[in-house]
Amino acid sequence: MTAIERLWEDYRLPIRDALHFADGHSFDVALDADAPGCLRVLAPFDPAEGLESDPSWVSSVDGLAEVDLGSEGLLWGGEGSHGSEGFIARLTVDRALIWAIFLQEANPFDRIRLSGNVATFGSTSGVEVTVDIDDPRTPISGQVPAAGYS
Questions:
Q1: pLDDT of the residue at 15
Q2: Range of the domain at 124
Q3: Is 147 a domain residue?
Q4: Does the chain have fewer CB atoms within 10 Å around its N or its C terminus?
Q5: How far apart are the first and last CA of the chain?
Protein backbone atom coordinates (compact mmCIF):
# COMPACT_ATOMS: atom_id res chain seq x y z
CA MET A 1 0.00 0.00 0.00
CA THR A 2 1.39 3.42 -0.96
CA ALA A 3 1.68 6.43 1.37
CA ILE A 4 -1.16 8.14 -0.51
CA GLU A 5 -3.41 5.10 -0.23
CA ARG A 6 -2.76 4.97 3.53
CA LEU A 7 -3.66 8.66 3.87
CA TRP A 8 -6.76 8.24 1.72
CA GLU A 9 -8.09 5.54 4.07
CA ASP A 10 -8.77 8.45 6.46
CA TYR A 11 -9.61 10.92 3.65
CA ARG A 12 -6.40 12.89 4.06
CA LEU A 13 -3.94 14.32 1.54
CA PRO A 14 -0.55 16.07 1.83
CA ILE A 15 -0.72 19.86 2.12
CA ARG A 16 0.92 20.62 -1.21
CA ASP A 17 -0.39 21.68 -4.62
CA ALA A 18 -0.14 18.24 -6.17
CA LEU A 19 -1.66 15.47 -8.23
CA HIS A 20 -1.51 12.06 -6.56
CA PHE A 21 -2.19 8.65 -8.06
CA ALA A 22 -3.03 5.63 -5.91
CA ASP A 23 0.03 3.82 -7.30
CA GLY A 24 2.24 6.33 -5.44
CA HIS A 25 3.18 8.62 -8.33
CA SER A 26 2.78 12.30 -7.42
CA PHE A 27 3.40 15.52 -9.33
CA ASP A 28 3.54 19.14 -8.29
CA VAL A 29 0.79 21.20 -9.97
CA ALA A 30 0.07 24.90 -10.38
CA LEU A 31 -3.06 26.81 -11.25
CA ASP A 32 -2.32 28.64 -14.50
CA ALA A 33 -4.94 30.49 -16.55
CA ASP A 34 -2.77 30.03 -19.67
CA ALA A 35 -2.47 26.24 -19.30
CA PRO A 36 -4.97 23.80 -20.83
CA GLY A 37 -7.69 23.26 -18.22
CA CYS A 38 -6.08 26.01 -16.07
CA LEU A 39 -3.78 23.44 -14.47
CA ARG A 40 -0.10 22.87 -15.14
CA VAL A 41 1.37 19.50 -14.14
CA LEU A 42 4.99 19.92 -13.07
CA ALA A 43 7.78 17.70 -11.75
CA PRO A 44 7.24 14.38 -9.99
CA PHE A 45 8.06 14.03 -6.30
CA ASP A 46 7.90 11.38 -3.60
CA PRO A 47 5.22 12.26 -1.01
CA ALA A 48 6.56 9.59 1.37
CA GLU A 49 9.72 11.69 1.86
CA GLY A 50 7.74 14.76 2.94
CA LEU A 51 5.49 12.71 5.17
CA GLU A 52 8.47 11.01 6.78
CA SER A 53 10.05 14.33 7.75
CA ASP A 54 6.72 15.88 8.84
CA PRO A 55 3.81 13.47 9.44
CA SER A 56 1.49 16.40 10.27
CA TRP A 57 1.91 17.68 6.69
CA VAL A 58 -1.66 16.57 5.86
CA SER A 59 -5.14 17.96 5.50
CA SER A 60 -8.42 16.13 6.00
CA VAL A 61 -10.71 16.35 3.00
CA ASP A 62 -14.48 16.28 2.80
CA GLY A 63 -16.66 16.18 -0.29
CA LEU A 64 -19.13 18.86 -1.33
CA ALA A 65 -19.97 17.65 -4.85
CA GLU A 66 -19.94 14.34 -6.65
CA VAL A 67 -20.81 12.82 -9.99
CA ASP A 68 -21.67 9.13 -10.14
CA LEU A 69 -19.86 7.34 -12.96
CA GLY A 70 -21.75 4.08 -12.42
CA SER A 71 -19.46 1.06 -12.52
CA GLU A 72 -16.54 3.42 -13.29
CA GLY A 73 -16.67 5.00 -9.81
CA LEU A 74 -17.26 8.67 -9.08
CA LEU A 75 -15.82 12.15 -9.26
CA TRP A 76 -15.59 13.97 -5.96
CA GLY A 77 -14.73 17.55 -5.11
CA GLY A 78 -14.59 19.38 -1.83
CA GLU A 79 -12.61 21.11 0.85
CA GLY A 80 -9.57 20.60 3.04
CA SER A 81 -9.06 21.36 6.73
CA HIS A 82 -8.42 25.07 6.09
CA GLY A 83 -10.81 27.43 4.29
CA SER A 84 -8.55 28.12 1.32
CA GLU A 85 -7.98 24.44 0.46
CA GLY A 86 -9.80 22.45 -2.20
CA PHE A 87 -9.48 19.04 -3.76
CA ILE A 88 -10.81 17.10 -6.72
CA ALA A 89 -10.62 13.35 -7.15
CA ARG A 90 -11.64 10.28 -9.07
CA LEU A 91 -12.56 7.30 -6.93
CA THR A 92 -13.55 3.70 -7.46
CA VAL A 93 -17.10 2.54 -6.71
CA ASP A 94 -16.01 1.75 -3.12
CA ARG A 95 -14.36 5.20 -2.78
CA ALA A 96 -10.79 3.98 -3.10
CA LEU A 97 -8.50 6.57 -4.66
CA ILE A 98 -7.66 6.53 -8.36
CA TRP A 99 -6.23 10.08 -8.39
CA ALA A 100 -6.62 13.32 -6.45
CA ILE A 101 -5.52 16.91 -6.91
CA PHE A 102 -5.06 19.06 -3.81
CA LEU A 103 -4.81 22.85 -4.11
CA GLN A 104 -3.95 25.06 -1.14
CA GLU A 105 -5.43 28.30 -2.49
CA ALA A 106 -8.33 27.27 -4.77
CA ASN A 107 -11.01 27.19 -2.06
CA PRO A 108 -13.47 24.30 -1.81
CA PHE A 109 -14.71 22.70 -5.02
CA ASP A 110 -18.49 22.53 -4.88
CA ARG A 111 -19.50 22.00 -8.55
CA ILE A 112 -18.66 19.40 -11.18
CA ARG A 113 -19.57 19.50 -14.87
CA LEU A 114 -18.95 16.37 -16.96
CA SER A 115 -18.94 15.75 -20.71
CA GLY A 116 -17.57 12.41 -21.87
CA ASN A 117 -14.26 11.96 -20.10
CA VAL A 118 -13.70 15.70 -19.50
CA ALA A 119 -14.74 17.27 -16.20
CA THR A 120 -14.67 20.85 -14.98
CA PHE A 121 -14.55 21.34 -11.22
CA GLY A 122 -15.66 24.76 -9.94
CA SER A 123 -14.69 26.23 -6.58
CA THR A 124 -16.44 28.66 -4.27
CA SER A 125 -13.92 31.34 -5.29
CA GLY A 126 -14.57 30.91 -9.03
CA VAL A 127 -11.50 28.77 -9.79
CA GLU A 128 -12.25 26.23 -12.53
CA VAL A 129 -10.03 23.25 -13.28
CA THR A 130 -10.77 21.06 -16.31
CA VAL A 131 -9.20 17.60 -16.57
CA ASP A 132 -9.38 14.36 -18.48
CA ILE A 133 -10.84 12.07 -15.81
CA ASP A 134 -8.96 9.06 -17.18
CA ASP A 135 -5.59 10.82 -16.79
CA PRO A 136 -5.51 14.38 -15.42
CA ARG A 137 -1.96 14.79 -16.78
CA THR A 138 -3.39 14.82 -20.33
CA PRO A 139 -3.71 18.41 -21.59
CA ILE A 140 -7.26 19.47 -22.45
CA SER A 141 -7.25 21.15 -25.85
CA GLY A 142 -10.18 23.51 -26.12
CA GLN A 143 -12.68 20.98 -24.72
CA VAL A 144 -15.01 22.52 -22.20
CA PRO A 145 -17.93 20.47 -20.94
CA ALA A 146 -21.17 21.91 -22.30
CA ALA A 147 -23.57 20.59 -19.68
CA GLY A 148 -24.31 22.54 -16.49
CA TYR A 149 -22.77 21.86 -13.10
CA SER A 150 -24.17 19.17 -10.86
A1: 96
A2: 3-132
A3: no
A4: N
A5: 33
Alpha helices by DSSP H, listed for 17-142, are 47-53
**Tens digit of pLDDT at every position of the chain (150 positions):** 999 999 999 999 999 999 999 999 999 999 999 999 999 999 999 998 888 888 888 999 999 999 999 999 999 999 999 989 999 999 999 999 999 999 999 999 999 999 999 999 999 999 999 999 999 999 886 544 444 555
CA distances from 67 to 8, 53, 102, 116, 139 (A): 19, 36, 18, 12, 21
Q: What is the chain's alpha carbon radius of gyration, rounded to the nearest angstrom? A: 14
Q: Which helix (H) or strand (E) covers residue 3, if one does? A: helix 3-8
| 146 falls within a domain | no
Q: What is the mean pLDDT of the chain?
A: 93
